[in-house]
Amino acid sequence: MTVRTLNIRLLREGRDIERAFTDTFAPNAGRALQRGPWELIEGATVFVGQIYSNPPKWRSFIEEGSNEIPDEIFTGGAGAVIFVPIGARFAAICFGHIHIALNDDAFERQFGLKVTLNSVPGSNIRSLDLATPDAVTFQKRVQASRDSDVNAFGVDRLRDVARVAGGTPKDPSFARFVAGKDSLSITCELDINDVQKKCNEIFKVYEKTDYKTDFKWVDNLRPVIEKDLIEQLDEKLFVDLGELRKGNPVDLHMSPPEVANYIEGSELHYNGFGSHGATFHSLAITDYISELNRCKFTGDIKEIKEKHRISAKPSDKDQFSEKWKVYDCFIHEASLTSKTDTLYFILFAGNWFQVEALFKDSVNKFFDEIDTVNIIGKTAAHNEQELIANLVATRAADLLKLDREKINPAGVRNANLEPADFLSDKKHFIHLKDGHSSGPISHLWSQGVVSAEAFVGDKEFRKKLRSIVKSEKKGFEVHLPKSTERVVREKYTIVYGIMRQPYADGTLGLPFFSKVSLQVSVERLRKLGFDVAIELIEKPASSAGVRRGRTSSVATSEEAGGKALAKS
Question: Which of 204-218, 279-293, 408-422 holds the top average pLDDT?
Answer without folding.
Answer: 204-218
